[in-house]
Amino acid sequence: xxLDWRSLPSLAALxxxxxxxxxxxxxxxxxxxxxxxxxxxQQVRALEKDLGMSxxxxxxxxxxxxxxxxxxxxxxxxxxxxxADGIDTLRRRExxxxxxxxxxxxxxxxxxxxxLSEFWDAHPGSEISIHPSREYIDIASEGFDLAIRALPNxxxxxWPGVDVAPLAEMLVVGIVAPKLLEDASANPQDLPWLxxxxxxxxxxxxxxxxxxxxKLTFVPIGSPNLLMEAVRQGLGATLFxxxxxxxxxxxGRLVQVPLPKTLYARYLAVTPKGPRHALVEPFVEWVRTLx
Length: 291
Known about the structure:
Elements lengths: L10 H13 L2 H8 L3 H15 L4 E4 L2 E4 L1 H30 L2 E5 L1 H8 L3 H7 L5 E5 L13 E7 L9 E15 L1 H6 L8 E5 L3 H9 L8 E6 L4 H6 L5 E4 L4 H6 L3 E3 L5 E10 L7 H9 L3
Parallel strand pairs: 3-4, 3-5, 7-8
Antiparallel strand pairs: 1-2, 5-11, 6-9, 6-10, 6-11
InterPro entries: LysR-type_TF_proteobact-type, LysR_HTH_N, LysR_subst-bd, WH-like_DNA-bd_sf, WH_DNA-bd_sf
Keywords: DNA-binding, Transcription, Transcription regulation
Family: Belongs to the LysR transcriptional regulatory family.
């Protein structure tokens, strides 16, 4: 049976009558709906006019339902309770569904995964699926609840149909093995720079900090997972978050490249527009504490 909404009274009038039937008077019905006493009475009278029948009779401060009113109240109660049960079922199912996250491989491997147990301790029973990727994808159609991506400060996020929130800002520095910097006489233009898959953002940052990218010598290494070890082995220089190179710099395994300009980048939390998974906000807040 198809539903003809045009044949039904207004939902506001039906809600007002249902609240009146449940509470027994207009005043308590008004409080339950957070509207005025007069608004409820007006909606009930409008419903009676629309249906062409008497549904409720005022008796002092209370309201007595007519036989037709009792019948309608019973149907509305069943209908609204069915709707409430259906919505509650969907919400509980959504809460049980794990959150799907896509984040940059470095963030997953070096920052999130080593401390993920902390989030689970705070949110026991949470199911989290994390997909390492730096690709710019349609996160809604791919079924992700949250994407975390790194961008140069000079670049704006242009994904359509998403909400974007800042997650963390990073100081980006040039790093290299000490022997290479000595050989290059401290000139970053003379250094070999490591080239790896998916380094478009890094090329933008290299230009932002004043390097002439077209005149640089690049050494291909393929996977960015090999990046830090390749730098330590003296194969070339790269740009990296200063926060996550401090240990190597302090130990003397790496030294900073003197860049022409100070450079910053940022991590962004990207979510599809519309309702969010219940774990998105607490997960984002937790990731912020890791920086």
